[in-house]
Amino acid sequence: MDKPTSAQDFFATRRYNDNSPEQRTKVEGIAQWIGRTGLPARIVEDEEFIAMMAKMDKKFKVPKRHKILNLIDKMYKEEKEKIKQKLATARRITTGLDIWTKNGLTASFLGVSACYFNPEDNKAEHKLLNLKEMVHPHTAESISTLVEESMEEWGIPREKVLTTITDNGSNMVASFHTHAEVATTSEEDSEAEHDDANDDDEHQEGEDDRYDYGAIERTPCVVHTVQLVVNMVQKEPPIRRLLEKVRYLVNKFRKSSVATERLLQKCALVLVKDCPTRWSSCFAMILRCLEVKEHLTAVAESMGWDSLQPSEWQKIGMLRDLLLPFAEHTKSLESDTQSLSLVVPALLDLKNHLSEFSLAHGRIYKDAATLAQKMLSSMDRRFSVFLDITADNFSPLPAAACFVDPCVAETLLENDDNEVQNLVRKAEDYIAHLVPQRVQVREEQLTDDEQVANEGTEALESIPAKRRRFKFFSANRPSKPKTAKTTNIRQEILKYKEGLSESHQTAATSAEVEESGIDYWLTQCCSIAFPTLKPLALDLLAMPASQAFTERVFSVTGYLSCGRARTILERSAFLKVNKPK
């Protein structure tokens, strides 16, 4: 080996000191890379890896795997502590649950996540807390036990959890029955439990949910429930046969490299196959077929295959129109944060769409019109938990989130339908119910002079005009009801409604502003004017409408679990999903 010929050459090849900033930075970077990808730490001892690092920086000393493992473990503990501190400062938390099973059914895991408004950074955050390994069978008791372990590990008191979002599986629903039984035995005013959950998902959605002092036991995942309505297209015999014909044609293309290549040459697109477990996949399949209709037909003819008849293409177009609003709302409702406020307007929008569709296509495509009517009936039944205040399991949470979101509050406030106005009243009651009792007592003890002084310092805020995003939902502005003088939180609610009313009157001359509800409360509503309502609004607006976050976690863990030890799966998923953005 050639020896250095000068001092410059000597220092150019001299290795970094172990404690030098350059060495530490690179070692920590490798640890982050391995920790968040789930790669084995022994990769740092691979000859090719060492050679690659030598070409990048000759001074760098590649660490041994034990050092990398220690750094990953340290990083994991530090990240957990940071999130634990954020959870401690969060006022209210929404948790999400989902179960995932590895390929080959070799192991199952319960994913637990937490969504909250971070008052220090002024933003909504959603974090993965745990991937708890489960043993078969996945009973309600085992789910409840693992959730309790997770809450204890992260120091989350039960009264801090606004609600838990789950799918409609019988074990998930029953786990909250079990939890409720344990909780009510320690209460003086315990109530008898409802009937046991049965295994029919359609019957038990949202069953036995209840709220006490602002805490709602369980909220069904809105997107999962919407997809149950969408999947009714597979149950209507004439439409099912049409979709089977489309699916058969798509499969023929996807299995033929010749047909696929010809289609690519014509339009640079391929056909999309639907998947029963993938949201809006049926819509995606027919949408792509319609996009490449002419090219698809031409290629099918060149291959000697039967294609769809003109009348069938027309029906496929109507099905696209039927499912389009569902796909659009699914996309917005599956957001990790800030989507619960969209639930009520989205549901009302979809119901009006189905009603209009059945009327418009009753003569042209009777099967689709009949399907729309059945889907509407299904929505009435499935979403009574959010829209029907007389339902035993009614939850005011989505209506309350909608109420404090100025971007969509008009859906409730500018409609004089009795059912919608009942939702408004329930939303206001629930928001007032969220105020801690000690705060309510203090507010009630204010003198008249103090209340007048408060009212004088709390100037009304006007809201920029918002673009109507729910095109199927028409609303008539109701007359403003007279409101009696009540506690301070009620006065803040009234003041907020009056501000919305004023902004509506000036909407014609105001410029459209795309702004989230959280942005509005942070930038335009001062804490002096809304000392109680503002933090409540921020907490409600941070909430998600689905447990899609946990679903996406499992798409990550599916890769991480390939050939990896189960012990590092939770750590790798935690570091990857929760990495700073």
From TrEMBL:
InterPro entries: RNaseH-like_sf (IPR012337), ZnF_BED_domain_contain (IPR052035). Residues 186-207 have a biased composition (Acidic residues). Residues 181-207 are annotated as: Disordered. It comes from the Eukaryota. PANTHER family: ZINC FINGER BED DOMAIN-CONTAINING PROTEIN 4. This is Uncharacterized protein.
